[in-house]
Amino acid sequence: MDKNSEIQLRAPELSDLEQIHLWENNQELWHLSNTLLPFSRFTIEQYIISEQEDIFSKKQARFIISLSYKFENICIGAVDLFDFDPHNRRAGVGILIDEKFRGKGYASLALLKLIEYSFNQLHLHQLYCSILKSNTESLSLFRKQGFSIIGLRKDWILVKNEWLDEYILQLINQKN
User: Fold this and answer.
1) Could you read off the pLDDT of 65-114 as tens digits, one per residue?
2) Which residue range forms the structural domain that includes residue 42?
3) Fewer CB in a 10 Å sphere around the end CB: N or C, the chain?
4) 14: exposed, middle or buried (C-beta count within 10 Å: 0-12, 13-18, 19+)?
5) Structural domain includes residue 164
6) pTM
């Protein structure tokens, strides 16, 4: 990673519409979000507008991972909190880094910022995620940030007519 670059998590903006539209309609990624049909630009636009709502009412939040580099802000990915449960103080986590920016440490920095926000601002007790057993890069990313594998779902996800196993990972906030 370049010394002059900085990662920020921010709310989605209408200027992110084209990039989010590309990610959401990439059929190679649909198994990550159980997507079955493509999204229109109008639907994505309405989603971005609704993202200004409170996480307590929507039970989810998306943050754009923005790379500040040489006076420019580049949308390089997104990280989501979903299934937000304020009573049990937990939420699921999902992260996507655009292919052009993978392998540079940005996902690790973004995940660390999301963990800090979740534990320090939302006062969550735990975060969890599900990762395909074959996705060694994501497993390494989450384990590097302290997530532990707590279970395995056999034949859980159907991708291209093949059943795949999925790990469940969890991070407990030891201070809360």
Assistant:
1) 999 877 778 899 999 999 999 999 999 999 999 999 999 999 999 999 99
2) 6-125
3) C
4) exposed
5) no
6) 0.88
